[in-house]
Write a structure and sequence with these properties.
Chain lengths: 165, 438
């Protein structure tokens, strides 16, 4: 039996309409005067997110402000929605870095596979869901915007145990 | 009939101009009050439905959502108005008006407070104290169905037409029971003037809800059908007919059907309060038994502005009670099937209403023949007769199962019996094994 499912005893013989209606009205009236309402007044009250919530992406960065991304190309390859655009570059020491790194949050299905596949723990999905925009172009988050996201990343990834060991 | 020395107060009659001015003020005040109340009823309905489902309801526009009706109205005015190409244009536009006007006009004959003394004379707190008050009410409340039927027909839409047809059939079926249950009130009052109905209830010392209990319940059920509210909302049955007769309507014309529905609810509640709950009478207080006998002369208590105010509040409370019941019922009870509506109307309501009329009339005639004075004893005898009829009606309505309970109770009883039987068998087993061990 699933959780929170109550099995009701249905009457096995014909019952009184009048008394059943009155009983129903008494029940609804009790709910009418019950001050304990279930509504979550959304903009003021926010729902508690699950620790495993996968929302808006966050790009981790080094202390000097460079992105941790090494432009390996695994996340655009694994992405089932094909929402990541990556143009890799290489500096004179041979370090690879993303020249362009864009995620279209509108196309993203928030499966979290980019985070799982990332070898350097650079890209994460986060505990955030309010990404409304006035235009479709606004949903394409570039590298700076991904790095400036302030919210927590999902607890699917534990920062103290980054490689999942 | 009144034994005590009647105190007669001379307040003075209104002049012709005074009458016109007073009537204009009353019409404007009542009209705006009704319109504001109707707007608030739409909000109240949403609030009550929300509270019953453990939600909060609209609370964003204005304090506690009070301005929600204004926002809705503004939205509806600004919406695009669509006219179906196949519709009959004239009737299509006429129908919302035809449904809203009778609903508003009926309020004119309902007395809403004790007469108010002014320096220009006595002002009666009813817009038009028509001598044929209740007949006027019946005529206009049944006119409302024309709006619905015309709306259904002129839309050239099968769902709208079905809704209109259902409304027509339902209104005709329940109008009979409605009219018949009103007859008992007329027997008792001997008049169809609504102010007289209130006065006679004050004289009886009992509101007609008790001495005419059977008629009251029949009237109440019929009113639910007349206002097209659940469990009788067959004309707009969302799950079967899209939205029934107003399927093709949009913007303010759609809104007008809703205003008409709530105006009907308001008028019906006020009418029931007047006919069966003593109108503006304050219970247990003789100071408001003010009876106008014409020419600005009153009998009974002395009219004063604060009595008018208090009686108006009493009237509001009684009306609010009926409105609340309307809404609690709407959000509790599911819709009848169409054949069930017709069964209830023709096979139960009509014969029962006929029987109630005959028995009530017989009782009143017997009481008058026996010379019982019109007063508390008279009322109590009628109460006993009517409560017996009401019990019989409920028994017929419920096919004799009112006493059987609501199923869950019988189920509980059956389980308890089974448990008891098991326990008894176990006890018998232990005693029998004990005896063999010996």
């Amino acid at each position: 039996m699933a959780i929170n499912v109550r099995t009701m005893k249905r009457p096995d013989q014909k019952s009184s309409y009048v008394r059943a209606s009155l009983k129903g009205m008494a029940l609804t009236f009790r709910h009418l005067v019950n001050p304990n309402k279930k509504t979550l007044e959304y903009p003021e009250q926010k729902p508690d997110l699950s620790p495993r919530w996968r929302g808006t992406h966050v790009m981790e960065q080094h202390e000097d402000g460079r992105p941790k991304c090494v432009a390996c190309g695994l996340c655009p390859t694994i992405c089932p929605a094909n929402c990541i655009r990556l143009i890799p570059g290489e500096d004179d020491q041979g370090n690879r870095y993303p020249i362009v790194y864009e995620i279209d949050e509108f196309r993203c299905i928030f499966c979290g596979m980019c985070q799982e596949v990332c070898p350097v723990e650079a890209i994460h999905v986060g505990q955030h869901y309010e990404n409304a925009e006035y235009s479709r172009e606004g949903f394409v988050y570039d590298l700076d915007r991904l790095m400036s996201q302030k919210h927590e990343s999902t607890l699917l990834w534990d920062p103290s145990d980054p490689a999942g060991e | 009939m009144m034994l005590q020395a009647e105190t007669v107060h001379q307040v003075g009659e209104l002049s012709a101009t005074g009458f016109v001015v007073a009537s204009t003020i009353k019409i404007l005040a009542a009209f705006s009050l009704v319109m504001v109340t109707v707007a608030m009823l739409t909000l109240l309905e949403r609030k009550i439905s929300a509270w019953m489902q453990d939600r909060l309801g609209p609370n964003r526009v204005g304090p506690g959502g009070l301005l929600q009706p204004a926002a809705d109205g503004l939205k509806n005015i600004l919406k695009e108005e669509t006219n179906p190409a196949e519709s009959h244009r004239i009737f299509f536009n006429l129908a919302p008006m035809l449904s809203i006007i009778p609903a508003l006009v009926t309020f004119a004959v309902i007395p809403f407070a004790a007469p108010l003394p002014t320096q220009w004379g006595l002002v009666e707190m009813v817009i038009a104290d028509v001598p044929v008050g209740v007949l006027f009410l019946l005529a206009f409340s049944s006119l409302g169905v024309y709006g619905i039927v015309i709306a259904g027909w002129s839309s050239s839409n099968k769902y709208a037409l079905l809704g209109g047809l259902r409304a027509g059939a339902q209104m005709i079926s329940y109008e009979i029971a409605l009219g018949l249950s009103l007859l008992s009130v007329f027997f008792l009052v001997g008049n169809v003037r609504l102010t007289e109905v209130v006065t006679m209830q004050q004289e009886l010392g009992l509101w007609f809800a008790l001495p005419l209990a059977a008629s009251f319940i029949l009237f109440w059920i019929s009113v639910f059908a007349e206002t097209n509210r659940l469990p009788f909302d067959l004309p707009e049955a969302e799950s079967e007919l899209v939205t029934g007769y107003h399927t093709e309507y949009s913007s303010m014309k759609f809104s007008m059907f809703f205003i008409a529905e709530y105006a009907h609810v308001l008028t019906a509640s006020a009418l029931m309060a007047t006919l069966f709950l003593g109108g503006w009478d304050i219970p247990g207080w003789a100071g408001d038994n003010i009876r106008v006998i014409g020419d600005g002369t009153v009998v009974g208590g002395e009219p004063a502005w604060w009595i008018t105010l208090l009686t108006f509040l009493a009237f509001l409370l009684k009306t609010a009670f009926f409105i609340l019941v309307f809404m609690v019922v709407r959000w509790t009870v599911p819709r009848f099937r169409y054949d069930q509506v017709m069964d209830l109307g023709w096979k139960i309501m009509l014969p029962v209403a006929l029987a109630v009329v005959v028995i009530t009339a017989g009782t009143i005639l017997t009481l008058d023949e026996l010379g019982v004075e019109y007063g508390l004893v008279y009322g109590l005898i009628l109460t006993v007769v009517n409560l017996a009829m009401l019990a019989a009606f409920l028994l017929i309505l419920d096919r004799g199962r009112v006493l059987a309970g609501t199923g869950s109770l019988t189920e509980k009883r059956r389980e308890a019996q089974e448990k008891a039987r098991l326990r008894r068998r176990e006890e018998a087993m232990t005693t029998s094994t004990g005896s063999t061990a010996d």
